[in-house]
């Protein structure tokens, strides 16, 4: 029987303000708002009541490039966006959740401040080549993103990254992107998983070679399967999101090498793909079980990195308490 892992989490969209203007984005808004710490605490408490262990903190990149956002921060009493994010992490920890922060591109000094407060961190490479759909997105410059992933390695931060398929890249681009990530990991050994995620289009977003709207998955299952197989040759853990595929398709991808389903939330939607609700854990266990697949819960920091104690110092007690319950590591 094959085994796939997953993390039980809650999705915290701290802000949807973002300096990038990707043509396919379902997440970005320009209202310059952000979650209050009271809202963060309320959601974190709901998540713990539902036995979640991970707080997935995802937000727009560098929202403080906008004067309106900086004013909102100052009004709320924060000197910087990084200060606010750190406080959000602390709030989640206080409520019993392990933060996993997806912050976009970061400086080394910023990552050092976030490291003690996180079990792991993440940044999708998407593709290691320049694409037209990123023309108005300075943070999607592949060189800038690669440097951020490398910085995480130098700081020994367990890291999640991955490819986004169907944004205008070629098959060669996909294989090249995997090779870039594999080279980084060979140098630092900190990439805990690689996500293989197809773009899901909607009325305003795009997919395919020219990033025009598709209103469906931008790539065929066979293309995803090929990337999964190639990724598994290079990485120990390959993730496919279970809300973007049918059960039969998931079974195909698992047999091709995918062995993780990522974060699944009983309390929040997938704010990146809001039109694709999470399947329930009971449904997944039952249906994947019929296909000969067993599900096992993990923490947002993978077992091998737990054993190496590479998680943030301020969440050590949480990690230890969860290990007693799950029996992992």
What report would you give on this structure?
- The chain has 329 residues and is an alpha/beta fold.
- It has a single domain, classed as Alpha-Beta Barrel (TIM Barrel), CATH 3.20.20.
- It has eleven helices and nine strands.
- Strands 1, 2, 3, 4, 5, 6, 7, 8 and 9 form a nine-stranded parallel beta sheet that branches.
- Strand 6, helix 7 and strand 7 form a beta-alpha-beta unit.
- Helix 1 packs parallel to helix 3, helix 6 runs parallel beside helix 7 and helix 7 runs parallel beside helix 8.
- The longest helix is centred in the middle third of the chain and has 18 residues.
The N- to C-terminal Cα distance equals: 20 Å
Biggest sheet architecture: 9 strands, parallel
Q: What average pLDDT do the residues reach?
A: 94
CATH topology: TIM Barrel
What portion of residues belong to β-strands? 15-25%
Computed CA radius of gyration, to the nearest angstrom: 19 Å
Topology, number of strands: 9
Anisotropy-based shape: globular
* Alpha plus pi helix count: 11
Structural class: alpha/beta
CATH class identity: Alpha Beta
Number of domains: 1
Low-confidence stretches: 203-215
């Amino acid at each position: 029987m094959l085994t796939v892992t997953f993390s039980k989490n809650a999705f915290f969209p701290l802000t949807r303000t973002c300096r990038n203007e990707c043509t396919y984005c379902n997440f970005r808004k320009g209202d310059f708002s952000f979650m209050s710490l009271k809202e963060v605490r309320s959601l974190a408490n709901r998540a713990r009541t539902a036995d979640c262990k991970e707080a997935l903190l995802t937000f727009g990149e560098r929202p403080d490039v906008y004067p309106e956002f900086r004013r909102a921060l100052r009004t709320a009493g924060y000197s910087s966006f990084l200060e606010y994010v750190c406080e959000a992490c602390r709030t989640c920890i206080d409520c019993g959740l392990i933060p996993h922060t997806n912050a976009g591109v970061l400086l080394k000094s910023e990552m050092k401040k976030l490291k003690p407060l996180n079990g792991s961190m993440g940044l999708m490479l998407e593709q290691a080549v320049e694409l037209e759909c990123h023309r108005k997105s300075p943070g999607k410059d592949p060189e800038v993103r690669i440097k951020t992933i490398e910085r995480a390695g130098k700081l020994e931060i367990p890291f999640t990254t991955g490819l986004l398929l169907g944004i205008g890249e070629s098959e060669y681009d996909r294989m090249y992107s995997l090779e870039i990530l594999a080279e980084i990991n060979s140098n630092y050994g900190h990439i805990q998983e690689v996500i293989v995620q197809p773009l899901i289009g909607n009325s305003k977003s795009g997919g395919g070679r020219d990033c025009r709207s598709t209103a469906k998955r931008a790539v065929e299952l066979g293309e995803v399967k090929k990337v999964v197989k190639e990724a598994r040759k290079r990485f120990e853990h390959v993730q496919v999101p279970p809300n973007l595929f049918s059960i039969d398709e998931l079974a195909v991808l698992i047999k091709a090498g995918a062995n993780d389903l990522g974060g699944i939330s009983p309390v929040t939607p997938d704010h990146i793909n809001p039109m694709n609700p999470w399947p329930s854990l009971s449904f997944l266990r039952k249906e994947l079980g019929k296909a000969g697949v067993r599900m096992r819960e993990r923490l947002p920091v993978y077992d091998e990195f737990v054993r190496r104690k590479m998680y943030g110092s301020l969440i050590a007690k949480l990690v230890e308490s969860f290990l007693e319950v799950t029996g992992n590591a």
